[in-house]
């Protein structure tokens, strides 16, 4: 069921500084910041040859990454995203296996224009998992 690694997301407190680090020091291709109000984050994409890194910065008052950054002000790996061929079938299979799907359980359109869902980190070895429809 689980497919390609779509991205690894890193929450950052200082987006400009993190972009500069990846663009100038690491020599990566770094996008412009893209506000995602439906997700409470601003996202920057870093294109790698085999996958992507997403830099996340809180947007608005109820950002889902606010508490994470309070606990880790220097930032840190926030989630990993796997592609699945059929997100509703994947959701139902994971739920049947006891995993908790976050939010209202229905996919939202993510930063890449495709449906996404999140799974509780306590059910995946302490790692927040995002699923994206391939
Ligand atoms: C840009 C759009 C999209 C894309 O297309 O790529 C995105 O990536 S959007 C990214 C941001 N959106 C989300 O993260 C949505 C899903 N997240 C949530 O619903 C919540 O953040 C959460 C995972 C339920 C956490 O809620 P929160 O209120 O922040 O914290 P809690 O206190 O309830 O946490 C409970 C427990 O879990 C631990 N935790 C929290 N976040 C993480 C994490 N990212 N990785 C690992 N563990 C995490 C937290 O430390 C608590 O543990 P204990 O202290 O042991 O209880
Ligand atoms: Co993501």
TrEMBL record:
GO terms for biological process: L-methylmalonyl-CoA metabolic process. The keyword Ion transport does not apply. InterPro entries: Glyas_Bleomycin-R_OHBP_Dase, MeMalonyl-CoA_epimerase, MMCE/EMCE_epimerase, VOC_core. GO terms for molecular function: metal ion binding; methylmalonyl-CoA epimerase activity. SUPFAM superfamilies: Glyoxalase/Bleomycin resistance protein/Dihydroxybiphenyl dioxygenase. Belongs to the methylmalonyl-CoA epimerase family. NCBIfam families: metmalonyl_epim (TIGR03081). This is methylmalonyl-CoA epimerase. The gene is mce.
